[in-house]
Amino acid sequence: MYSALFRLLPGPTWAKIVQVLILIAAVIIVLFTWVFPWVADNLPITDNTVG
Questions:
Q1: CA distances from 6 to 24, 29, 30, 44 (A)
Q2: What is the pLDDT at residue 51?
């Protein structure tokens, strides 16, 4: 999967590495901004079952 992504990106090797790092940073930002807060609100993780 990663090699296919690396082949699809344009430019020389150094530019591909920069593009991959930017893509990874974008995924992490999206996860921490929208996905993780939504999951925390919708899963009953903080509900105590032991009295």
A1: 13, 21, 21, 39
A2: 63
Contact between 50 and 39 (Cβ < 8 Å): no
Structural element, H or E, at residue 29: helix 13-30
CA distances from 46 to 24, 39, 40 (A): 30, 12, 9
Contact 49, 35 (CB under 8 A): no
Give the whole-angstrom CA distance, residue 33 versus residue 30. 5
> What tokens does 19 get?
């593009």
pTM over 0.70: yes
pLDDT at 5: 85
Q: Regarding predicted confidence, which is higher, 35 or 6? A: 35
